[in-house]
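Lab manual, section 2.4: Encoding a predicted structure.

Procedure: take the sequence of the chain (298 residues), apply the prediction step described in section 2.3, and record the output as structure tokens. A sample record is shown.
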Amino acid sequence: MLMNRLTSEEIFKWCSIPWQSLEGCEGKKIKLAVRKDRAEMMAEIGNLMADEVRDHNAKGLPTKWVLPAGPCDEYDTFVRRVNEERIDCKNLWVFHMDEFLDWQCRPYPVADTYESLEGTMLACFYNRIDEELRPPEDHRIWPRINNLDYPDEMCDKLGGIDTVWAGIGATGLVAFDEEPRDYWYRPTVEEYADSKTRIVDINSDTMVAMAERSFGTCLDRIPPKGLTIGFHVICSAKRAVYMVATGDWKKTVCRIMLFSEPTTEYPVTILPKYVPDVTLYTDEYTIDHPMSHDTRGW
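Recorded output:
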């Protein structure tokens, strides 16, 4: 069925809970792991990543991930451990979340630039892993405009994803899977959960957030379109690890993802319906909502 939009009353209630009380609250849809700061949190996640590949290797199993091109600081710990401990990543399959397109739906050249997420991942992930341990190129699954079905077909062929490692947008995006805002189609939660790899217009609030974070809110610097893997791939996972430590931008969405029923208004809320093990990792500042303090009459 189509999920109604969340009410202000629901959101205000969730935001008013002191963060120290969240762990004991009934009705949470996912697990919560709060760490002191971003550095501690991302180092722990990097270790979780290295442990998963190492453990799967010991069992003779492939490792199948969905990875973001941001945040990237978890890769520091992962790459260090891979190189130091000689953790073989030749059997690691990586489904990349998304890629930017220009206003004419054309991809940008692959380079270490903001517009090229493939170039970003080469610089911060692949090229930092020792060559003899590095995932082969045919194990790196990118959404491409000339073969949109390939990620979904490969996901099905491999039997689904092990872990989604995901940053989350302020309005609940995962990859560039955002709230549908078109008058002409209104997908249900079930339809959205089976959505395929596709070309998307990036929602305006996401463009503002990216421009503010990187370019002094110069909106002209942000690509307006993208390619994204759909939730068909993401919802096939056994586990999802949300990484959210961006402070004020994410305080409200953290509360929504903890308590909301599935809704396309905040797509991140859909995952717990399909993924059996979901954890939000965050830091004390991000999870501490101002509306849980003196709100001066809100």
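Check your result against the sample. The two ends are 33 Å apart (CA to CA).
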